[in-house]
Amino acid sequence: MVATMENIVKRFKAHTALDHMNLTIQPGETLGLLGPNGAGKTTAIRVLTGLTNADAGETRLFGSEMRGAALAIKRRIGVVPQDLALYETLSARDNLNYFGRLYGIRGAELKRRVDEVLEVLGLTEVAKKAPKKFSGGMKRRLNIGCAIIHKPELLILDEPTVGIDPQSRNHILDFVEGMTKQGTTVLYTSHYMEEVERVCSRVLIMDAGRVIANGTVEELTKAAIFEETVTLEVREAAPGLSESVKKVQGVQRCEPDGRTLTVTSAAGSQNLARILECATPYIILSVAAKRPTLEDAFLALTGKKLRDTGGEGQ
Ligand SMILES: Nc1ncnc2c1ncn2[C@@H]1O[C@H](COP(=O)(O)OP(=O)(O)OP(=O)(O)O)[C@@H](O)[C@H]1O
Ligand SMILES: [Mg+2]
Predict the structure, then answer these.
(1) Torsion-angle region of residue 20: left (phi > 0), alpha (psi -120 to 50) or beta?
(2) Does the C-beta of 48 come closer than 6 Å to ligand 1?
(3) pLDDT digits (tens, 9 = 90+) for 209-225
(4) Is the pTM of this model over 0.85?
């Protein structure tokens, strides 16, 4: 096991940020950590990486107890914090040099490694520029570079794509996929469902300091979805259609609206063919079946949307 957290409790005065939280990270996996604002994701990362001590419970990294862990263990992890941690006036290269030296890399090896990291994050062209002149996405990429300069075995990214341009976001997602392919274990925090669906092999959903669901994206969507929806659009309004569709096994609701009919069935009904049979007397213009998403699973489990703020949505 790369990391485990067992029954972790972390309190800030009267507020319990982590409430008996459990987590395991297996070698080579890309684990997604999802949760609404204040769920405790960043606190969990801070406890896991030894930046803050828990009030109760045990954290182990690479088999060793984390409390007071030796530097040797901390060197095997790389953390990209939610808030940028860069020297704004040093060049991108010097930021990487600085972090490389912190990890004990020197001389020709440091130069080679800095060049590699600049390349993999698409920053070679701007290596001499200081981050104060960078876009948000470039700063974020450099922040990631500083966390991987020492080739960590476990890379932890806390919301690495918030508020950046689509090109940088894509670059970061490609980069994470590349790290996974090379065998790096990754813990990835995000509130963008499609990112988690794309890069993570397993997902933990957190709410109010606890892990409330754990599984692959497929397992979570299947487990949390109770209904499926099909929308039919016909050329002319067809009142009889709704009546016959209602009789199909598994159908729970039929909602006609002009030329469209929205049909809701129990999950797993597999009745699309029978619904379409009812529609054969009519001219069908379109059929749309909505596949349940991780967002639906999240909503079903927590009763909340991932983010309430409109501004950050895609
Ligand atoms: N240093 C602190 N002092 C007091 N309360 C804190 C501190 N750090 C976190 N909290 C509280 O603990 C809870 C969990 O916060 P945390 O930052 O871990 O959530 P998060 O899931 O990372 O949220 P976000 O998605 O906004 O980053 C919140 O209610 C937060 O206000
Ligand atoms: Mg956070």
Answers:
(1) left
(2) no
(3) 999 989 998 888 777 67
(4) no
